[in-house]
Design brief:
Layout: H1 2-14, H2 16-28, H3 33-42, H4 49-88, H5 93-101, E1 104-107, E2 112-115
Antiparallel strand pairs: 1-2
């Protein structure tokens, strides 16, 4: 029985080149998209659900890090504008309007941006 199983396996593995040729034909001649996906998946080209989740988390971290860097640059520009105002005594009406729109104001005594105090109604 073992000899028979060994012989069948030899024949099975002997079909390897035929199987590869059939897959190649189905992909290149028949343009079988499902088979193409299965081949790509079996080769590890298509990420697993766990890998996709990890990639999404990594992108979120990168986006957060990038936004943090953009915020730092914007803050440095704002600080530079306030310093120029203090040095050259130039008005900053556009900047004041923009800050007010987002809930902030320039404290010209300290040279810092502060939140606008919200008025409470009772």
């Amino acid at each position: 029985m073992q000899e028979h199983v060994r012989a069948l396996r030899e024949r099975w593995f002997g079909l390897g080149h035929v199987a590869v040729d059939a897959v190649r034909h189905a992909l290149t001649e028949e343009k079988d998209g499902r088979l193409g996906f299965q081949v790509a998946e079996s080769m590890g080209v298509v990420p697993s659900p766990a890998e996709r989740q990890s990639m999404i988390a990594s992108l979120a971290i990168l986006a957060t890090d990038e936004q943090t860097e953009v915020n730092k640059i914007a803050a440095n520009l704002l600080i530079g504008a306030i310093e120029r105002h203090a040095y050259f005594e130039m008005p900053l009406p556009e900047l004041e309007k923009d800050l007010e729109r987002v809930g902030g104001r320039i404290n010209y005594e300290t040279g810092k941006v502060e939140p606008i105090e919200k008025k409470t109604t009772r």
